[in-house]
Each structure stands twice: as C-alpha cells, then as structure tokens.
Amino acid sequence: MIRPFHWWRTVFYLIPAVTFYTIVLGTISLFSTLFDRRGNFAHQCARAWARAILATTGVRVQVSGLEHLQPGRSYVFAANHQSIYDIPIVFVSIPAQLRIVAKESLGRIPFMGWHLHRAGHLLVNRRNPGAGVVQKMARLVRDGSSLIVFPEGTRSADGAVGRFKKGSFAVAVDARLPVVPVTITGSSHVMKKGRLMVCPGQVQMVVHPPVSTEGIAREQVLALADRVRATVMGG
What we know:
- By secondary structure, the protein is of the alpha/beta class.
- The chain has a single domain (2-234), classed as Glycerol-3-phosphate (1)-acyltransferase, CATH 3.40.1130.10.
- It is 43% helix and 16% strand.
- It has 8 helices and 7 strands.
- It has a 7-stranded mixed sheet, with helices on both faces.
- The longest helix is centred in the first third of the chain and has 31 residues, at 2-32.
- 37% of the residues are buried.
C-alpha cells in the first residue's frame, strides 16, 4: 500500500505544490534580476524554492563538513548525481552564492529555465558545448560565485558513481580554484531516475576538504577528476 500512496501523493499533491513554488519564486527571481544583474537575490529565491520543496516532500538533509569551507571564497563544488532532488539538496545545504552548470534543456522549462538564464547559471549543450563555455564559467567565478557541477553528466540509474568528465575541472585549474568533492547519499530513494514517484526520507551530504589546483597543469586535469571522484565514492 505504501508505493501506491506515494504515487498518488506525488501526482495530486507534490507536483502541484512544486509547480506553485516554481511559478511564485521564479517570478520574484525574474523581477529581481532587473535590479540585481549578478543574480545574488535570485539565488536567495532559489534557496527558498529548494527549502520549500524539501519540506513539502519530507526530505531531511544531514550535512557534515561545512567547516572545511572559507566564507566568501569561490569554489567548484563537484557532486555525484543520484536524483533530480540533488539540486534542491545542494542549494539548501551549501552556504554560498551558487551557480549551476546544467544541461541546456533545463532552460526550456517555464519559470525555472527563465530563472536559470537571468540569474547567471550556465546551460550547456552537451553535444556541442562550444569554445566559450570555459570562459563563461570563469566569468561567474570572477563575479564572486561558486560553481556546482555534477561531473558524471547525468543522473545515475543504480546509485553507482560514474566517470567524471574533465570540463569543469579544467575551469578550476585555469582559475586556480579549489575543487570541493561532495558526496550525496540517499537521494536515489527519494526519486530515482525515470520514476515519477517521490518518497520522503533522510539524505546525507558530506562536504570534503577542498582539493587545491595550484601547480596542476592542463595535462593533469583528468587525474584531478579521478582523484575527486575517488573522494566522492569514499563518502
């Protein structure tokens, strides 16, 4: 009986609630970008959106490792990707001005996509990312933001951590930014890839110590990606 209950709850309660949050906070976010072109207030709207979604769903996040972060410093946060819920989990849990690097198709979603475009997030065509992506990511960092990337490129269907792609790590090396490995566990229980049903639950997020990119050459980017992946897999 539990699975049918969660399915009906998702369709008739959670989806309408999330749609409402997205429209209201997305609209506020869009208006704010008329006065705050850097998107800092829009990020606060995104955090409120994420907090409302997690509270409505019944997702509790236990975070550890925030003491490794230096307030006011920019980082590249690299997290594993188990569920679409990883995005609100990260936005609620990491106390920084975050800009996400995500697939271009998200930009076509009403309100959410408009927010992503206006608030300075980076939407990438995975098949043809273009030469300017690295420069755009570096510009966001120069503006004082941190980047959150999911280097696997897609959500895991079975919870295993896939191979980390090197693009975001090249940005970190070029900008001499520390990379912060982030391990998310339990979000696949909340909503698995390809499944409509959403379940409440406990999620753990571990923020590992930053990995310095000082002295790392472009030729060593793949080794950096593998090192960060090993840390994420170790939990």
